[in-house]
Design goal:
Strand content: 15-25%
Order of helices and strands: EHEEHHEHHHEHEHEHEHEHEHHEEEE
Strand order of the largest sheet: 5-4-6-7-1-8-14-13-9-10
Mean pLDDT: 97
CATH architecture: 3-Layer(aba) Sandwich
Structural class: alpha/beta
Number of helices: 13
CATH superfamily: Thiolase/Chalcone synthase
Low-confidence stretches: none
Shape: globular
CATH class: Alpha Beta
CATH topology: Peroxisomal Thiolase, Chain A, domain 1
Radius of gyration: 20 Å
Number of strands: 14
Distance between the termini: 18 Å
Helix content: 25-40%
């Protein structure tokens, strides 16, 4: 009999808060975490806004000497994992450590470290490059450092599937538990890519919004006036565990992880496949593995990046998958408030989806003012919606390279 997997702990670190209650209240009240970028001088940049964690100080959470050896995305993961473990009431001691694993995704990793060390190489020569450069920068170090910090000695993986990385990590973590290789997984996504070169690169691709005048209104998924995504940063971590183990230790259960679907567009490095064909297959797989009917899904936390192509193709894909039920579905993009946190998006949006099920509330898509004929679903515009019996939620993440990862959560 296949093992059942449940979510027992939540942690976030975002522009909308670092505590679950504060973050959730901001999400359901439709607050934007987007403002002018303060991390560096944006003169000459077409896009000047982002969802920064502006009040973050590493020394409040991590020993100062240790923090200097951790890239920002890794710091975010360590701090958020601690919060999720505390929320789950999980004790990782010698008796259980071998059965607790880590899966943390990141699309880009320690890019600010790369920028800094290349500068030192050019200005001062190779001997001035830090011996910590490589272990700080590489993407798997978030998972590695979370394990070192918590003592989790079970399976340890890192997913790098661009903006699908967080969902990929949680889905693969679920599969690890189902096959019996761990009883508990610390899983999610982390990203810290609001840096000069990353913003310049996304700007050169014309992927970012240039609506700089009113930052809080710039991310407008599914709206006819959308012109690109707003870069964000942060981390979202969930504690998932085998149902029997969660019951045994009397854990609170937020939701059950029921299905995980993955696919490749095999089409283009950045553009989604026409009509979201790859996304369709990932959604269909997630529903099939959840062993539910498509008509059972109540709400989709959409990838919803606020880019012209993504929102159109995701909307078409949802219509193709859900057919007549699409008109009854609630669909919203919380990136309208958090910005697009790239590899961290799936982790944070899984936290939002689990809270939605637990509290019976669907978060809104803010800044939805101008309907687009190509996007014709119920996007829960501008105000959260009370849904007394929210049973099944899907959360979508799609990444550059045509990598798609979808999760289905259910009420336990």
């Amino acid at each position: 009999m296949s093992k059942r997997v449940v979510i027992t702990g939540l942690g976030v670190l975002t522009s909308l808060g670092m505590e679950i209650e504060e973050f959730w209240n901001n999400i359901i009240s439709g607050k934007s975490g987007i403002k002018k970028i303060e991390k560096f001088d944006t003169a000459g940049y077409p896009s000047k806004i982002g969802a920064e964690i502006s009040d973050y100080k590493a020394e409040k959470y991590i020993d100062n000497k240790e923090a200097k050896r951790l890239a920002l995305f890794t710091q975010y993961a360590v701090i958020t994992a601690r919060a999720a473990i505390k929320d789950a009431g999980l004790v990782i001691d010698d008796q259980v450590a071998d059965q607790v694993g880590v899966a943390v995704g990141s699309g880009i990793g320690g890019i600010e470290v790369l920028e800094d060390q290349i500068g030192k190489l050019i200005k001062k020569g190779p001997k001035r490059v830090s011996p910590f450069f490589i272990p700080m920068m590489i993407s798997n170090m978030a998972s590695g450092q979370v394990a070192i910090d918590t003592g989790a000695r079970g399976p340890n993986i890192n997913t790098v599937t661009a903006c699908a990385s967080g969902n990929s990590a949680i889905g693969e973590a679920m599969e690890i538990i189902k096959r019996g290789d761990a009883r508990v997984m610390i899983a999610g996504g982390t990203e810290a890519s609001i840096t000069p070169v990353a913003v310049a690169g996304f700007s050169s691709m014309k992927a970012l919004t240039t609506s700089n005048e009113q930052p809080e209104r710039a991310s407008r998924p599914f709206d006819a006036e959308r012109d690109g995504f707003v870069i964000g940063e942060g981390c979202g971590i969930v504690i998932i565990e085998e149902l029997d183990y969660a019951r045994q230790r009397g854990a609170r259960i937020y939701a059950e992880v029921l299905g995980y679907g993955v696919s490749a567009d095999a089409y283009h490095i950045t553009q989604p496949a026409p009509e979201g064909e790859g996304a369709q297959r990932a959604m269909q797989m997630a529903i099939a593995k959840a062993r539910i009917d498509r008509e059972d899904v109540d709400y989709i936390n959409a990838h919803g990046t606020s880019t012209p192509l993504n929102d159109k193709n995701e909307s078409i894909a949802i219509r193709r998958v859900f057919a007549g039920h699409a008109d009854k579905l609630m669909v919203s993009s919380t990136k309208s408030m958090t910005g697009h946190m790239l590899g961290a998006a799936g982790g944070v949006e899984t936290v939002i989806s689990a809270l939605g099920i637990n509290k019976g509330i669907v978060p809104p898509t803010i800044n939805y003012e101008n309907p687009d004929p190509d996007c014709d679903l119920d996007y829960v515009p501008n105000q959260a919606r009370d849904v007394r019996d929210l049973q099944y939620v899907m959360t979508n993440s799609f990444g550059f390279g045509g990598q798609n990862a979808c999760l289905v959560l259910g009420k336990h």
